Amino acid sequence: MTVFFFTCLLSYFLLTGFAGFKAYQHQQLHLIDTLLPIWVIGCWSLLAAFGVGQQSLGNLIELPLLLFIASVLYNARVYLAISNSNKTILTRRSIYIIVLVITITIRLSSPLMME
Questions:
Q1: What is the reported pTM?
Q2: What DSSP assignment string belongs to 10-40?
Q3: Which has the closest alpha carbon to 61: 72, 69, 73, 49?
Q4: Quick one: DSSP state of residue 111?
Q5: Is 112 helix (H, G, I), strand (E, B) or coil?
Q6: Is residue 52 a contact partner of residue 104, using CB atoms and an 8 Å limit?
Q7: In the predicted structure, residue 35 carries a pLDDT above the cut 70
Q8: Residue 49 burial (CB < 10 Å; 0-12/13-18/19+)?
Q9: What does the pLDDT look like over 51-80, one tens digit per residue?
Q10: CA dist., res. 100 & res. 82, Å (int)
Q11: CA-to-CA distance for 81 and 8, rounded, in angstroms?
């Protein structure tokens, strides 16, 4: 499972690496941006630990899907922040809230996959 988490995190950083570099060039990168995948894994782990949703092999699909959604939102926020430097449409807080709502929705609606 540790290798699975590491692989998911590595794929997230590969998907967001170019956007992070652009955000760094335009001074739009903050420490809170790097904590988004930890937030996703933490929310997902807490929901799974407390028994929210089905406990099955579907758990292996949920985490990469959530990290992919988080990377798309992060890339969108970076490109919107670069193009509109005076205001950001997708703020950091809104991305964290959107990811939390999507995490809860996916945990509650995931089907039971037999092992």
A1: 0.83
A2: HHHHHHHHHHHHHHHHTT---HHHHTHHHHH
A3: 69
A4: P
A5: coil
A6: yes
A7: yes
A8: exposed
A9: 887 777 777 888 899 999 999 988 888 888
A10: 25
A11: 26
